[in-house]
Design brief:
By secondary structure, the protein is an alpha+beta fold. It has helices spanning about 5, 10-20, 105-115, 125-130, 135-150, 160-170, 180-185, 190-200; strands at about 25-30, 35-40, 65-70, 80-85, 95-100. Helix 6 (about 160-170) crosses helix 8 (about 190-200). It is globular.
């Protein structure tokens, strides 16, 4: 980890401790483009994982604080996220802190307060920094299917998993590189099973 980034780990720990268990804090090193610290890891990501976002256009961002914007977690839970660009003394971007807040518990309360207080809508997810977030797109597609069919990811039977794979194929998910490996983890099935089902479709 970049030595300068190490100074931010106590801050990550403090935020995570204060808002446990509803807030996940993730620290990324832009030089290695890897996750280097995580607190309350409900996204199932681990230290050493590669960043899932393309940061080539980071200099096009007008502000170092991006968000809040809405995301969907791997388990289908709705999140509100804020990302902060970290810079060294020479103003060079060296890292990103992402704070993911589970909002589903507060959703009904929030809708009532929004009408009462006229709270502004969330900003849209910024394309410059997050256009390559294929996992987020995959989560959203899976959860759209689950909600439409009144299903729960953890309770899917093998037949339902096959039907989900067929749906994802129709949605073009399998054009995404590395998505098969990721779906094996999410659905707890083998690569051979996925390829078998895809072959049957053809």
């Amino acid at each position: 980890m970049n030595k300068q980034l190490e100074t931010f780990t106590p801050l990550c720990d403090a935020i995570g401790k204060l808002f446990y268990p509803n807030v996940e804090v993730v620290l990324h090193d832009l030089e290695t483009q890897k996750l280097v610290h995580i607190v309350n890891a409900f996204s199932k990501r681990e230290i050493g994982d590669k960043m899932i976002n393309d940061v080539k256009d980071i200099n096009s961002l007008k502000e170092d604080i991006v968000g809040p914007y809405n995301k969907t977690n791997i388990d289908g839970k709705k999140l509100k996220t804020v990302s902060t660009i970290l810079r060294d003394t020479n103003k060079k971007a060296i890292g990103i802190i992402c704070i993911n807040f589970k909002i589903e518990v507060f959703e009904t309360m929030y809708d009532s307060l929004k009408m009462l207080l006229n709270i502004e809508e969330n900003e849209e997810q910024p394309q410059a920094l997050f256009s390559q977030d294929w996992k987020e797109h995959t989560h959203s597609t899976i959860n759209k299917y689950l909600e439409t069919n009144d299903l729960i990811l953890e309770e899917l039977k093998i037949k339902e998993k096959k039907e989900l794979i067929i749906y994802l194929n129709n949605e073009g998910i399998f054009s995404i590189r590395n998505v098969v490996t990721y779906l094996c983890e999410v659905l707890d099935i083998s690569r051979a099973t996925i390829y078998k089902w895809l072959k049957e479709i053809k």
